[in-house]
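Why do we care about 3D structure at all? Because function follows from shape, and shape follows, mostly, from sequence. That is the central idea of this module. The next example makes it concrete: a single protein chain, its amino acid sequence, and then its structure expressed as tokens.
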Amino acid sequence: MARVFITGSSEGLGLMAGQLLVEQGHQVVLHARNARRADVARNGLSQAEAIIEGDVATIAGTRALAESANGLGRFDAVIHNVGIGYREPRRIETEDGLPHVFAINVMAPYLLTALMERPSRLVYLSSGMHHHASADLDDMLWTQRRWDGSTAYAESKLLDVLLAFAVARRWPDVVSNALEPGWVPTRMGGPGAPDDMDKAHRTQAWLAVSDDAAARATGAYFYHQRHRAANPEAFDVALQDRLLRRCGELSGVDFPA
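And the structure:
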């Protein structure tokens, strides 16, 4: 039996992964943005060990979430599921001066990775859109370019893969992988999304707990429990290290050695 923490799990794929893990006999802790969303999560998975509240749109909120998670003890796996989509029509800036999409999709998983007690496995949700992005680390906060919500989202998902692969390289004792769930009809994906909803949550749960040899690989990218080629930029060690440095500078939290 494994103990798994899933971010952004009050509904959608995060909650579905939690439900599957509980069905398999594992312990699950969910995460919700606020008390109202926590009630939704509780109704969706009453067997959850706990539901932690925390708004990861801010650095302070994410730090508080990490502290709350650490207060429950070490997890065997953390699934970094929290994220927002590509429909923001303008650059929305958080109180930390970060684009909203970057703050939630990139900074939150970076901070939780750096601040939570180190698990045995880390799982990062990306998107098929990352294949068509480029890591513009010179302007990853979108202060120089004209805002494009779709491109900003795709870049954030590429940065998630860079983060996953950087962790795999820096922490050889941790299994760290990324995946794309497919374009499925969640609130983020929209009702017209064509991929199979029943398969969308299974890969992250499998990577978190399975003893299959493929699931115990590290520094890999998956789709529907199979290896898939990642954007080649994700393997660029210099880009990986630069992303960690930039996130450390922006947050005041250096990546642990």
